[in-house]
Amino acid sequence: MRVLFVIRHADYIPLGLMHLSSVLKKAGHQVDLVISTHQDPIQAAKEFKPQIVGYTIYTGLHRYYLELNKAIKEALGGKVLSVFGGPHATFFPEVIEEEGVDGVCIGEGEEAMLDLANALEGGDDYTSIPNWWFKRDGEIIRNRVRPLLEDLDSLPFPDRELFYSKDAFSRESGLKHFISSRGCPYRCSYCYNQAFNEIYRGLGKIVRHRSVDNVIEELRWVKSKYPLRFVVFLDDLFIWPLKWVEEFAEKYPREIGLPFFCNVRPNLVSKELVRLLKEAGCHSVGMGVETGDEDLRRTLLKRDVTQQQILESARLIKEAGIRLITTNMIGLPGGSLEVDFKTLELNIACRPDYANVFLYQPYPGTELGEYAREHGLLEGFYDDIGPSAWDHSIIRFSDEKEKRQVENLSKLFALVVEWPFLMPLVKVLIQLPPNPLFRLVYKLWKGYTIKTRIHPYQASLKELWQTVRHFLKMF
């Protein structure tokens, strides 16, 4: 079976597709990838002649993929099964109703994709495979979701060559991304994890970890094949359970010994955890602050974290010499510009090395997204959500002037956290119309701090030049 995956650009590392590819290839199927910014996807499809074409879609870019899929199907004479997975398909499976969409995969896709490829290869009926919704002759067939994959060590390592063979920048970069676990037990109302947990209620353990030895084996394998000087762990819950972190802190420095980044959660940060991370070689961590209004954080976001926990966690991290990046949301439903300045002030008190801020986006399937939709707080629908979470908001504000100020604040937020004396000036600047200068300042400062503080490593002149070119393309 010939399977072609299509992504728009190489700005993110498609680990999900890499996992699918490795599972498919292990079973003897042929897999290829096309990156639209690097190669004409229609021409690539004509040359590869896939029997399945697959897309991982995110809200904000979903419309692009739907239109591209129609063009690819037309170029192939309709003789291809088009399937969609990823967050948008999982939490808004009604995308199956769109023209040209033959199947939608809900939830984890390794077993589901393999079953589909095997069934098509054998000429068997595939329409009852778990995790899939299919459209056939105008009828939509909705199948149940299978139990979660429990043993993550049983999966082959992600097929990195699938992506690296198409994107020289990522292949040659000394920074590589990894995942050591899946799932999150928390139920934050704005997060996909809350909706994901509902889909899989009663179908297995939500949080699953690979063994430390399996993670280190992958790291060692990647290190032997590609440049690797800085490790980024993308896990939602890398720091739990503590016993796993203890084993990691004992083995990782000896076996790998590279600086790394991971995410932490304020209510789980302790002196012992910070000590273990430091011993392991952790250079930087990301921590969610989200909002500076504690009542809003508890009631609207359902994030049971106190101001004191946030401040104490930041203190412990900074005192250990570990770099800190915070994540925040402004423009929340039920919030205000006053609330957003509280968020700014809390970040100033935390003194992070970079304060990352996003305009809240009401993603489909999330509890808060549905709340915003049901209460008429959206200007438009999910199709109006942009690909960038810091560009503009589709939340309806009672005052358009305040909305403009919030959107402008998102671009200048990090500068005030770094230099609090700019607060009076920024309060004036955010009243101006949105302009490219704010966007440029945001990108330049973020790029500089991430490169020099959060993910630093000694790069060659060639890689530095590639990074600059990559950045300029993104801008």
Write up what this structure looks like:
By secondary structure, the protein is an alpha/beta fold. It contains 19 helices and 15 strands. The strands form 3 sheets. The chain has a 7-stranded mixed beta sheet, with helices on both faces.
Distance N terminus to C terminus?
38 Å
Give unreliable regions as ranges: none
Helical percentage: 40-55%
Percentage of β-strand residues: 15-25%
Compute the number of strand runs: 15
What class, by secondary structure content?
A: alpha/beta
Shape: globular
Mean pLDDT: 93
Radius of gyration: 22 Å
The number of helical elements comes to 19
Could you give the order of strands across the largest sheet? 2-1-3-4-5-6-7
Largest sheet: 7 strands, mixed
Task: Break the fold down into its secondary structure elements and pairings.
Blueprint: E1 2-7, H1 15-26, E2 30-35, H2 41-48, E3 52-56, H3 62-75, E4 81-85, H4 87-91, E5 103-105, H5 110-122, E6 132-136, E7 139-142, H6 160-164, H7 168-172, E8 175-178, E9 181-182, H8 192-199, E10 208-209, H9 212-225, E11 230-233, H10 242-255, E12 260-264, H11 271-280, E13 282-290, H12 294-299, H13 307-319, E14 323-330, H14 337-350, E15 354-359, H15 367-374, H16 400-418, H17 423-429, H18 436-454, H19 461-474
Parallel strand pairs: 1-2, 1-3, 3-4, 4-5, 8-11, 11-12, 12-13, 13-14, 14-15
Antiparallel strand pairs: 5-6, 6-7, 9-10
Helix pairs in contact: 1-5, 2-3, 9-10, 10-11, 14-16, 16-17, 16-18
